[in-house]
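Hi team,

As requested, here is the filled-out complex form for the flavin-adenine dinucleotide run. I kept the field names the same as last time so the parser does not choke. Let me know if anything looks off before we queue the next batch.

— J.
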Amino acid sequence: MSDPTTLPAAAHATHTVFNQPPPFEDVNLFTSDRVLTEALRREGAEWAGSQARELGEIVGRRETISLGFEANENPPVLRAFDRNGNRIDEVEFHPAWHALMGLGVEHGLHALPWREPRPGAHVARAALFMLLAEVEAGVGCPLSMTYSAVPALRLQPEVAAEWEPRVTSTVYDPRLVPSPEKAGALCGMAMTEKQGGSDVRANTTAALPVGEGGPGGEYEITGHKWFCSAPMCDAFLVLAQASGGLSCFLLPRFTPDGARNRFHLQRLKDKLGNRSNASSEVEFRAAWARLIGEEGRGVQTILEMVNHTRLDCVIGSAAGMRWGTARAIHHAAHRKAFGKLLIDQPLMRNVLADLALESEAATTAMMRLARAYDGEESSFRRLATAVLKYWTCKRAPVHAAEALECLGGNGYVEEWGMARLYREAPLNSIWEGSGNVQCLDVLRAIQKSPESLRALLAEIRQARGADHRLDLFVNELQAQLERSEDLEARARRLVERLALALQGSLLVRHAPPEVADAFCASRLAGDGGRAFGTLPAGTDFKVILERAFPG
Ligand SMILES: Cc1cc2nc3c(=O)[nH]c(=O)nc-3n(C[C@H](O)[C@H](O)[C@H](O)COP(=O)(O)OP(=O)(O)OC[C@H]3O[C@@H](n4cnc5c(N)ncnc54)[C@H](O)[C@@H]3O)c2cc1C
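And here is what came back:
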């Protein structure tokens, strides 16, 4: 009998590896995304093309994609105390996290429109934010909160004058030192408490003035926050009850005399996804803070911030859908089953095209929304933000699940990255106002600011006459909006239809006819099923798939 160890390698190899797709990496995520490149131009930020191309190339590199994996495999660790038992309240992050944060800050994802306030600045930033969020979503949280804090800070000009130069700096400085010593600073937000998150008026954290108090004045904050993400930020917008009612404060990690503020990290949350980012429970024990705006106007003040973070939830969800679509198409283009590439199998073509359609609708509407942050479109922005926050974020988890399944068993395995996408996907729908809260906000906007509905419908009607299914859908929607009974119970249906009408109108005007036709047929005329992959017969899969192909 022959000794197996002396056999030639090929003879005792169990098998050759083939029919596994090449890695999806070293792809420029901007130039390979036709929908995004067209939208950047259309929505007024063509000037940012070279920056988007540059970032698209960087984030698509193998090394950058690996950073996302590393940052999630090595989640942040709380260091509440030093070895001598002194409280330090620090969180230690893996170098991969810092590298990704540095990338985001250097490219101005936290500040571009405030640094370069020119037409298209929010659109440009939206595209850049989307590119980084495709390969790693965790860093999006502090980048988004820092970007969003600026409009709220500006309500207190002397505080803004001190903080804005720091939080718009493109230097990433992760040191926990007093912010005057830092080359750049980041901002977080702490609203949610144990007894009430959506219902922030239930906050019990208390604020007492040091001296006279009043706008810009000094206060001491005592209480807890049940969620406070990115706790290594340099300052936080915090809601607390002052004698005049719920108020908004800027609470830095250090007091003006350079001492650590009484900001104590209790625990880090063990989260479903978003694991590279830290989300903490925190207590303030007479922590030093400054009032932003008037006492009692806390909700209105912090909404200046929250509206921008809601935009980022839409961007983040669109990013997840594009990444999932690109990965699914890439896999199907290289994997054979039953003698044919998956991408050539009719049923898989239907699934991929349906995913691509959802992704295109999300990106197109998101970029249109970002333009509303650039100009004088406050009415459109008011309603469209809540409508798209609800719908885009609701679509992301089901989209991620289906994109994952396109990779078969590999999709369920961590090292392919789809599992991470899937775990991340529900988050955008929860934070910054959960689904129901968004829908109730839409009702509130329609009732209190009817001009916001007029602006949204005017945008939708720009496509009037171009597609009879869209016209019919909008007519029915208007009839539903006019019915006043059971509004609250019907809110999800209404908001869903407002979002679909907006997406339909944008696609009819701006997308290739084959894309618009498939969208109107499946999403507006009811000729589609409840799962992805149910586009009607006659859909031009070839055009839709070629357009979405990531290469
Ligand atoms: C990973 C993560 C990070 C977070 N980071 C932060 C942070 O940095 N800072 C911060 O302040 N918060 C943060 N949050 C908290 C988040 O914003 C809240 O969890 C969210 O707003 C919901 O509040 P809640 O958890 O208290 O749920 P609740 O308010 O109790 O809501 C529970 C459910 O009831 C629904 N609901 C609420 N009111 C109504 C109503 N009137 N009618 C019908 N349905 C309703 C909601 O939509 C939700 O589905 C974070 C959350 C997560 C998951």
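Two things worth flagging: The mean pLDDT is 97. Residues 298-334 form the longest helix (37 residues).

Thanks,
J.
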